[in-house]
């Protein structure tokens, strides 16, 4: 069974059984648990769910939009064929000063790549999208808002801090996305990928996702082996990876489960 299914479904099951019921700004109440953590050794396998289909290409497009294009323009994402931000688009076509905007504003990716190449024992390698001054001008404040990077024994490790995690929709994307990011950054600076630790402060299941997630829990015993992530090995410039250079070999899964997004 894929490790991703095991760790993800453990949290989903715990939230459904023991989670606290509460309301939130969307008006769709959730069951929630604080401080849920998943850790994956990217050297062993790629963390993507097999107990449901995860739209891998769509997820990677969103990742490239934020980290490589460093854009806040939803129309750019739509041009790539990804529509997961449509509901948060402002009349000017953007999501305000959020996500990619904050990476570009402080050249955060360039700084990270430089530090990893020149001083990888630096303990200040952090990319943060949480800019207090700009928070009021974001259509959604970033959820997966901080990554902390470390190099140990020639392996690149990354801890993702997510303040708020929608277990049904956002988290399956985020796990796969940030695992891809670690692989891309590692390949760009000549390191091997290591640990990916995913910390979720408020891990929640929306009430209208419960029945579908229960269906997914029943698939647990049928979970399949994780696919392999294949990245064109000739690319060593972070800005040169395209969506076609990043693919999964033999992604087997138990089929799509549709859920509605709470806006
Ligand atoms: N309530 C909520 N949950 C989220 O996960 C979320 C937000 N809001 N707001 C901002 C972004 C948008 N995200 C989304 C939005 C939609 C899907 C979604 O519909 N996923 C489908 C596949 C979509 C496709 O193939 O295009 C899925 O079945 O996973 C995923 C992530 C993640 N974020
Ligand atoms: O990458 C993402 C982006 C968003 N989410 C989820 C988490 C919450 O359910 C909503 C955001 O609502 P807030 O009230 O701002 O917390 O979106 C996610 O899981 N992953």
TrEMBL record:
Protein keywords: Cytoplasm, Methyltransferase, Nucleotide biosynthesis, Transferase
Pathway membership, UniProt: Pyrimidine metabolism; dTTP biosynthesis
Active site: residue positions: 143, 143 (nucleophile)
Residues where dUMP binds: 25, 123-124, 163-166, 174, 204-206
Domain Thymidylate synthase/dCMP hydroxymethylase: 7-263
GO molecular function, one term: thymidylate synthase activity
The protein's assembly and partners: Homodimer.
Protein family (similarity comment): Belongs to the thymidylate synthase family. Bacterial-type ThyA subfamily.
Protein's name in the database: Thymidylate synthase
Organism this protein belongs to: Megasphaera paucivorans
Upper classification of the organism: Bacteria, Bacillati, Bacillota, Negativicutes, Veillonellales
């Amino acid at each position: 069974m894929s490790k991703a299914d095991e760790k993800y479904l453990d949290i989903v099951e715990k939230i459904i059984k023991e989670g606290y019921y509460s309301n939130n700004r969307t008006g769709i109440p959730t069951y929630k648990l604080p401080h849920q953590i998943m850790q994956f050794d990217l050297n062993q396998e790629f963390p993507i769910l097999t107990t449901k289909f995860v739209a891998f290409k769509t997820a990677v497009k969103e990742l490239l939009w934020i980290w490589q294009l460093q854009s806040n323009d939803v129309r750019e994402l739509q041009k790539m064929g990804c529509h997961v931000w449509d509901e948060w688009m402002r009349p000017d076509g953007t999501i305000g000063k959020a996500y990619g905007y904050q990476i570009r504003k402080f050249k955060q990716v360039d700084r990270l790549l430089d530090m990893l190449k020149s001083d990888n024992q630096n303990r200040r390698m952090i990319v943060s999208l949480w800019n207090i001054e700009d928070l009021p001008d974001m259509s959604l404040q970033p959820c997966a808002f901080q990554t902390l990077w470390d190099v140990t024994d020639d392996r690149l490790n990354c801890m993702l801090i997510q303040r708020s995690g929608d277990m049904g929709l956002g988290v399956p994307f985020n796990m796969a996305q940030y695992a891809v990011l670690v692989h891309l950054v590692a390949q760009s600076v000549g390191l091997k990928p290591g640990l990916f630790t995913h910390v979720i402060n408020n891990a929640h299941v929306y009430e209208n996702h419960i029945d579908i997630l229960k269906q997914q829990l029943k698939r647990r015993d049928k979970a399949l082996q994780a696919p392999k992530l294949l990245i064109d090995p000739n690319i060593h410039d972070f800005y040169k990876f395209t969506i076609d250079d990043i693919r999964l070999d033999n992604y087997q899964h138990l089929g799509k489960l549709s859920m509605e997004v709470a806006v």
